[in-house]
Design a protein that fits this description.
Blueprint lengths: L2 H10 L4 H16 L3 E4 L5 H6 L8 E9 L27 H12 L4 E10 L3 E9 L4 H4 L22 H6 L12
Length: 180
């Protein structure tokens, strides 16, 4: 078996074994960091490679912290018509999609390739977002990533074209794949 298969086995149960011990140490450190942090290398290398990550110039990985749960506001007692009561309905976007959008706003010259879950606790969820520089020569010459340099792929995360966005839009059906 390859090393990536062993990594995948460890990440199937992230709270147990060596991954569980590392997780506790990481979460203590990550809670003190800013909400969007650029990191040197992916935490889940097997998942990042599956989504298209390559250790080359023009590709960066960003860890994004998202507050979990509904962003509800307490209901005012009186003095407003029902429409203006300020009750926020659940978002139709997943937390992962929101994390991708925040990373894209922080790095406006980069395109979001994909993202994946890293950790969660009672208050926060962390996702790692893979960003690609569409103007970098090494990306333009890469046959696997050259498609992202197309101008139609600019701000693709805000139009729901990333895997997390497509899933939230209901475009992935289990057991079926789109033919290219």
């Amino acid at each position: 078996m390859s090393i990536y298969k062993y990594m995948a086995e460890i990440w199937k149960k992230p709270t147990e074994g060596i991954a569980g011990k590392l997780r506790l140490i990481r979460l203590i450190k990550w809670r003190k960091e800013p909400s969007v942090v650029r990191i040197d290398r992916p935490t889940r290398l097997n998942r990042a490679r599956t989504l298209g990550y390559k250790a080359k110039q023009g590709i960066i990985v960003v860890r994004v912290r998202i507050r979990r749960g509904l962003m509800n506001v307490s209901r005012p007692n009186s003095g407003r018509r029902p429409k203006r009561m300020g009750i926020i309905h659940p978002s139709k976007k997943s937390l992962q999609w929101i994390a991708e959008e925040r990373a894209a706003r922080k790095y406006p010259n980069m395109n979001v390739l994909a993202s994946y879950w890293v950790a969660s606790d009672g208050r926060f969820s962390w996702y790692e977002v893979i960003l690609v520089d569409p103007n970098h020569p090494s990306i333009k010459s890469d046959k696997d990533l050259a498609w992202i340099t197309n101008p139609s792929q600019r701000s693709r995360v805000f139009r729901g074209l990333t895997p997390a966005g497509r899933k939230s839009r209901g475009l992935y059906v289990k057991g079926s794949r789109r033919k290219r």
